[in-house]
Write a structure and sequence with these properties.
Length: about 170
């Protein structure tokens, strides 16, 4: 029985060809995994920029929307039928004294700031512009409907526009 075992050649280990093939296959698999992970990581920062842009636009829209429809609209929002829609700002007003939607038309803040002039610290490098325009929609006359568009430009990536309608109620 011992002689039959000695006569047989038992293979132990791997050959050089098998080792090279294993290294090549693992290299290809590792390259594919790293490529997929880097693409995912590159897109994850875009979500943070989009979220910050949304928060910034919401802050501006929350500031602008409650203001009076125009200078001719009394507090309480009684619709005016005698005045055409107006988006012009009065002369001599500063951001702290804006009291109607038209005052915000053409506003550009870089860096963004609130109505009380304090900067949004987390939004360094962002730019915000506001456009207010008269429009009509679904049977509402242009004299009683305005479209507020807030455009946020992040430090990197494309500009994002956010819009809201405001009626003279």
């Amino acid at each position: 029985m011992i002689s039959s075992r000695l006569g047989r050649s038992l293979q132990q280990g791997v050959t050089l060809v098998e080792l090279v093939i294993t290294i090549i296959v693992m290299g290809i698999a590792l390259t594919a995994i790293i490529g997929a992970m880097s693409a995912t990581i590159g897109r994850s920062s875009n979500i943070i920029i989009q979220d910050r842009s949304l928060q910034l636009a919401q802050a501006y829209l929350d500031e602008i929307a409650p203001k009076r429809f125009d200078e001719n609209t009394p507090s309480g929002g009684v619709p005016s039928t005698t005045y055409p829609c107006d988006t012009s700002a009065e002369g001599g007003e500063s951001r702290e004294t804006y009291d109607d939607l038209g005052d915000y038309d053409g506003l550009v803040d870089n860096p963004p700031r609130s109505q009380t002039s304090s900067q949004f610290v987390a939004y360094e490098g962002y730019s915000v512009s506001v456009k207010v325009e008269c429009t009509s929609r679904a049977g509402i006359a242009a004299a009683n409907l305005k479209l507020i568009t807030v455009t946020v430009t992040p430090p990197s990536g494309p500009s994002m526009a956010f819009a809201r309608y405001r009626s003279n109620f």
